[in-house]
Write a structure and sequence with these properties.
single chain, alpha/beta, Rossmann fold, Arc Repressor Mutant, subunit A, 51% helix
């Protein structure tokens, strides 16, 4: 796997690069800001990019802007946003737009090398990942035990398809089930995950976030 790293903190960037190399990953390039990152990718596309949210010159959302631009121009390149900040708007956008090969982890995860490497592998395969802490913030509460454990195998399968952005009709066709049966399973998923009756689209997004952010 080839990874490009973008972070304005030279200390953090050096440590992350060392960690990746020790894990057998090729570091294709290093950038200090979004513009430099886009230039690097334009010249040599990696498998995955790791980017911070706040970088020069304004230190606000340059990383997110770069992440969106990368996904638009090079959809085959995975993007892992790695930050100390929880940007719930970006996490919600990630799911509602059914983006693939996009992830969002907090920098604390760097302390767990295998957690980081697993996220990179998932992005390289076209999957997505959202940090459980971000999910907890979006859900507005923490849970001692993951409610996902209460789902049946069929419900887990349907939730995974929901995470791919598929409608109930598409799920029913793919699994050879009636649409009414799928709707029943989806309702059961909402109930087991403790998602209160509101707009179905909102509950669908919350359910998918829980799925993507599973430990």
């Amino acid at each position: 796997m080839r990874v490009t790293v973008a972070d304005d903190s030279a200390l953090f960037r050096t440590g992350l690069v060392r960690l990746l190399k020790e894990a057998g990953i090729t570091v294709a390039g290093e950038a200090r800001d979004g513009v430099e990152l886009l230039n690097l990718i334009s010249a040599d596309q990696p498998d995955v990019v790791i980017v911070d949210i706040r970088m020069p010159p304004t230190r606000t959302d340059e990383g997110l802007t770069a992440a969106r631009e990368i996904h638009r121009r090079w959809p085959g390149v995975g993007v892992l946003v790695l930050s100390t900040y929880v940007d719930t708007d970006f996490a919600m956008e990630l799911v509602t737009r059914a983006e693939r090969s996009v992830g969002y982890l907090l920098k604390d995860r760097v302390q767990d090398t295998e957690e980081l490497l697993d996220a990179l592998r998932r992005l390289q395969r076209g999957g997505s990942v959202v940090d459980p802490e971000v999910v907890a913030r979006l859900m507005g509460r923490r849970r001692a035990q993951s409610p996902l454990e209460e789902l049946t195998d069929r419900e887990r399968e349907i939730l995974a398809l929901m995470a791919q952005g598929r409608s109930n009709q598409a799920i029913s066709e793919g699994l050879h089930l009636s649409e009414r049966t799928v709707e029943s399973h989806v309702g059961s998923i909402f109930s087991k995950l403790g998602l209160e009756p509101t707009a179905d689209d909102h509950r669908r997004v919350m359910a998918v976030l829980l799925h993507l952010g599973r430990p």
